[in-house]
Amino acid sequence: MPFLVILIIIATLVVCFFWFDNSMSSAPVFVAIIVAIIGIGVLIFDYTNTEERTIIVEYKDRGGSDGSYRVYTDGPTLAVADIWFSISSRRFDSADLFGDIEVCHSYDVTTRGWEFGPLSMMPNIDTILEDNGVVEGCVPKG
Question: What CA–CA distances, in Å, run from 95 to 25, 51, 69, 120?
């Protein structure tokens, strides 16, 4: 996600630079505006796309170069991160939520966002709706 925010900032700076420089062609301005619009659209979609799902936690760690919290499940890998940009549900207690998640437990959760590998984007656990308890026969990975 930080990559996308940086991309939007760079596109905005390019627009500002070429907008005030009359000696250059308007093509870079047009491209930068398109990139900014697409980036803002992806951000809006990412933070408004919510889904309820049942997961089985196989492993969890502080993965990634930024030290973000990751939860490896029987399905997609999920993130636990603070939610800054949502108007309806901001959250600043990701460390507490990550600490509440136990390996080899099943949970009903609400996720926000979508998975897009090239930008290392993954759904974010928004809330834990219910702890369904320990999963029989689960072997922790990692």
Answer: 48, 21, 8, 20
